[in-house]
Design goal:
Blueprint: E1 4-6, E2 9-11, E3 13-16, E4 23-24, H1 29-42, H2 56-69, H3 76-92, E5 99-100, H4 104-113, E6 117-121, H5 126-135, E7 144-146, H6 160-169, E8 177-181, H7 184-193, E9 196-200, H8 207-213, E10 217-219, H9 225-228, E11 251-253
Parallel strand pairs: 3-6, 3-8, 6-7, 8-9, 9-10, 10-11
Antiparallel strand pairs: 1-2, 4-5
């Protein structure tokens, strides 16, 4: 039985991003990029290949493309490993300061009470993300978790294979999943996999950013998600399923 409906499509599982969605991030991504660029240059990647205005994810992809086009793809494994270690080092520096987005825990528990499966898909490393969840008081309540280093950089979010994998771990089809995130990395992953998507305003993107991206299903925070999905099955005597509030062309809920 479908636990909810979203814009007319059945939803059985909700897959949540971490930084900017469930927790207020403490990761210094600017510092991470500086370190990444320095490490890449040490390993022979020209500075011109990388772009400080792009995300870490995009820069890693550009480095891979450079190695492939220059006949140096065999060097990717070593670069990926060392870059992963550097990124994890940056992630862990302030993880002890991690705090949850207000209402995140209650929202997860309410979604699960309604019969939805709830999982985590993050570009954070396993070491960092599990520590951040524990620090934020969110450990032990998500059913499945998937991290950047589970299957390597090339198959991590935003690659849609990552979303398909966690959907499978949650025991449902990706088309019956709703992904929730704060960045275009999340919406790109959802679109590529065929999942529904809702943006939040507690992280990287504000309302105008989402509009420019063409995403109009946006809520203030993950705490608003149960209400956005409508009343629980217990309160809907008509058909026993929740009806989404986010219908038609899209809605901004604050």
């Amino acid at each position: 039985m479908n636990a909810a409906n979203f814009s007319g499509r059945p939803i059985e599982a909700v897959i949540l991003d971490l930084d900017g969605t469930l927790v207020h991030t403490t990761v210094d991504f600017s510092r991470m990029k500086v370190r990444l660029f320095a490490r890449m240059e040490e390993m022979g990647v020209p500075k011109a290949v990388m772009d400080p205005s792009r995300t870490v994810t995009e820069n890693m992809s550009m480095v891979h493309s450079y190695l492939a086009s220059s006949g140096r793809i065999k060097g990717w494994e070593a670069i990926e490993r060392l870059a992963g270690e550097m990124m994890q080092q940056t992630e862990m520096e302030r993880v002890h300061l991690t705090r949850p987005v207000d209402g995140a825990r209650g929202s997860i528990l309410e979604l699960r009470r309604r019969g939805l499966r709830v999982g985590l898909l993050t570009r954070g490393s396993r070491l960092y993300a599990t520590a951040a969840l524990k620090q934020a008081g969110l450990d032990g309540i998500l059913e499945e978790l998937m991290f950047r280093d589970d299957h390597g950089e090339r198959e991590a979010k935003p690659n849609p294979i990552a979303l398909r994998r966690i959907a499978s771990k949650l025991g449902t089809n990706v088309e019956k999943c709703l992904m929730v995130g704060d960045h275009s990395i999340d919406s790109t992953c959802a679109a590529g996999a065929g999942a529904a998507f809702v943006g939040v305003l507690t992280g990287a993107f504000d309302e105008e950013d989402w509009r420019r991206l063409g995403c109009y299903h946006v809520i203030g925070s993950v705490a608003d998600l149960p209400n956005a999905l409508g009343p629980s099955r217990d309160s809907d005597g008509a058909n026993g399923t929740a009806g989404a509030h986010l219908d038609g062309e899209g809605s901004f809920l604050r």
